[in-house]
Inverse folding.
């Protein structure tokens, strides 16, 4: 065994510096947490990284958002391409351009070069999600935008600090294009200052170990990750796997699922993904730019290698052909891309989960719930000056069931496991919105031998507001979170307005600019994760425990698992299994369930409208997709959805 590590350093120095780089980035994150103005950034919708002199990622932080990390090197390289040799000590650059490797316009990065003498040895970068970046609706999430011009301010690589001096005119240009310039300016200053913390830590390492040693370690940690991943891949089977996941629809093309196709090949040269065959761009903002598509490939793969650090060494092994511009996974300018996070991004990640579950069955995981954002913006009438407010919320939900255990409930999305659930007390203080419920939803976890994690339901009432609109960015109202290896789906996403009134409105899973008034109420569930394995193989004792915990209802236990549970004393959590009735119920389901998928969809939709069937009956038994508010049948979507159920569930039933 060699006594030298990648970079030619002795093992102790290499290990110390490798971890010191993590600390430098984490300190940058701690700084932004303590100085940011935006409640969204405070809830950890931000990420940080240290890059080398060429813009390659050296190290990410410990709790960064997955999608950010996979794009930070693209943005750093964009700054280098834009400014070349015109970069100086004390400069700080801003960029949010999705067409230059960024995510969406709300995610604004600040990048600071780190100089030793007159030489750049690296870059410190912090990316934070600004609650508003302009555009046609508060929060800058406009479902109706077909091009980026309605989505907000596009910032190409731009110098905001020059040789240590803030360019106030440039800074004011940026923040004045937001609905909350005071908060935006606070975040701008906080993010830029955070990069100086990383700079300070790197220079402290240089002072202690020398410039050459630190630079060698920056290269060495990337080589180390590459070597580690190649060694892990050498232990796995080679071959090619394929799958497809879907967006719900293209509003400009009628109903029907929108495919995101993935082919994965593992060979002696690494992992290669091919996304050719994915749908053309859609006429809404649920498209993805190239940076976020590559990020999904990195993050989805990394999920199955949790022990491996993530830097550009990983990217050398994981490569992709994302196809020509003009597709939903490679939109290109000027197509709208703000909703990529709820669109192709998590579809790609979950598709990778499905394929890697075949390669590494010991780490198998079904589909996780979809990232979603609910945005309410307008004037806060609680004070005389009626300032703009932004109620900007995302939900926790359920991840997919795993190879040997149930999926986690009420957790952050796979898009960003570091995201925090925003505290209700803070939301109510900052905005005229009163939270009325926030609870786990029984029966939301996809049934299976191992159950998907449960989702949540969150509702609220608008109080003293004026000129207020609501927008929602999600998906999976029709392409419902799915199970694998015989497991069943979760439940659809979507928002209800005034659900308990005489005029309830189901607004769906993507909408923008809906006018709302004081006294209006809203509620929406997040989905749970998909199930893994045949639900009829689940241990009845585990179903009873789920009933006790509130994860499964008595009716759901019988409908989804064929387990008949009798309540003896619910206050004392005393339930018992009717073994004979359970055997009969499971036999009945086993003999009937294939036939359910052949039932006339129009008749099933009618029975739903008449109240005879509920949502879970349609998505889990009959494979029928309707407008969940009106009950109108979506025939093309239903036909496609049934085929997916047959592949992921029916084909695995004995």
């Amino acid at each position: 065994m060699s006594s030298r590590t990648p970079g030619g350093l002795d093992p102790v120095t290499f290990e110390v510096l490798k971890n010191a780089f993590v600390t430098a980035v984490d300190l940058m994150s701690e700084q932004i947490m303590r100085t940011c103005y935006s409640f969204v950034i405070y809830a950890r919708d931000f990420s940080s990284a240290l890059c080398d002199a060429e813009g390659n990622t050296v190290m990410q932080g410990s709790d960064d958002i997955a999608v950010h990390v996979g794009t930070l090197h693209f943005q750093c390289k964009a700054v280098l391409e834009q400014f070349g040799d015109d970069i100086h000590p004390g400069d700080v650059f801003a960029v949010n351009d999705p067409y230059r490797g960024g995510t969406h316009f709300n995610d604004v990065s600040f990048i600071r070069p780190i100089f030793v003498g007159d030489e750049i040895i690296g870059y410190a970068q912090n990316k934070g999600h600004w609650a508003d970046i302009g555009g046609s609706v508060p929060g800058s999430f406009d479902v109706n935008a077909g091009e980026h011009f309605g989505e907000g301010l596009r910032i190409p690589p731009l110098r905001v600090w020059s040789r240590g001096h803030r360019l106030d005119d440039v800074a004011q240009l940026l923040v004045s294009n937001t609905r909350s310039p005071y908060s935006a300016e606070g975040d701008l200053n906080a993010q830029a200052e955070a990069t100086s913390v990383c700079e300070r830590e790197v220079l402290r390492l240089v002072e202690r170990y020398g410039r050459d040693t630190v630079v060698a370690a920056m290269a060495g940690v990337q080589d180390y990750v590459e070597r580690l991943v190649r060694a892990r891949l050498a232990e796995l089977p080679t071959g090619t796997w394929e799958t497809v996941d879907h967006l719900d629809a293209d509003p400009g093309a009628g109903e029907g699922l929108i495919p995101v196709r993935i082919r994965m090949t593992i060979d002696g040269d690494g992992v290669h993904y091919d996304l050719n065959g994915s749908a053309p761009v859609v006429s809404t903002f649920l498209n993805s730019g190239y940076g976020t598509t590559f990020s999904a490939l990195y993050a989805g793969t990394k999920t199955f290698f949790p022990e491996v650090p993530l830097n550009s060494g990983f990217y050398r092994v994981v490569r992709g052909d994302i196809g020509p511009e003009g597709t939903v996974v490679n939109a290109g300018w000027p197509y709208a891309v703000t909703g990529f996070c709820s669109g192709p991004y998590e579809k790609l990640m979950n598709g990778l989960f499905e394929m890697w579950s075949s390669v590494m069955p010991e780490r198998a995981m079904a589909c996780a719930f979809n990232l979603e954002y609910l945005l309410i913006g307008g004037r806060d009438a609680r004070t005389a000056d009626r300032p703009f407010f932004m109620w900007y919320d995302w939900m926790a939900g359920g991840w997919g069931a795993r190879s040997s255990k149930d999926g986690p409930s009420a957790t952050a999305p796979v898009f960003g496991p570091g995201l925090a659930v925003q505290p209700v007390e803070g939301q109510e203080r900052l905005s005229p919105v009163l939270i009325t419920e926030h609870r786990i939803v029984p029966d939301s976890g996809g049934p299976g031998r191992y159950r998907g994690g449960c989702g949540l339901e969150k509702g609220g009432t608008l109080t003293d507001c004026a000129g207020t609109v609501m927008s929602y960015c999600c998906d999976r109202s029709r392409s419902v979170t799915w199970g694998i290896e015989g497991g069943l789906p979760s439940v659809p996403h979507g928002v209800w307005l005034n659900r308990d009134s005489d005029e309830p409105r189901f607004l769906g899973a993507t909408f923008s600019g809906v006018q709302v008034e004081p006294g209006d109420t809203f509620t929406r569930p997040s989905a749970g994760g998909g199930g893994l394995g045949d639900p009829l193989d689940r241990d009845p004792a585990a179903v009873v425990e789920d009933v006790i915990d509130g994860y499964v209802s008595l009716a759901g236990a019988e409908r989804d698992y064929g387990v008949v549970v009798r309540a003896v004393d619910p206050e004392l959590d005393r339930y018992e299994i009717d073994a004979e009735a359970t055997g009969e119920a499971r036999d009945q389901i086993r003999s009937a369930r294939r036939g359910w998928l052949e039932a006339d969809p129009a008749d099933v939709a009618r029975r739903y409208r008449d109240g005879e069937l509920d949502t879970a009956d349609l998505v889990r038994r009959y494979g029928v997709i309707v407008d969940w508010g009106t009950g109108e049948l979506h025939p093309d979507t239903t036909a496609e959805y049934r085929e997916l159920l047959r592949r992921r569930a029916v084909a695995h039933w004995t």
Remarks:
- The chain has a mean pLDDT of 95.
- The longest helix spans residues 181-209.
- The first strand starts at residue 46 and ends at 52.
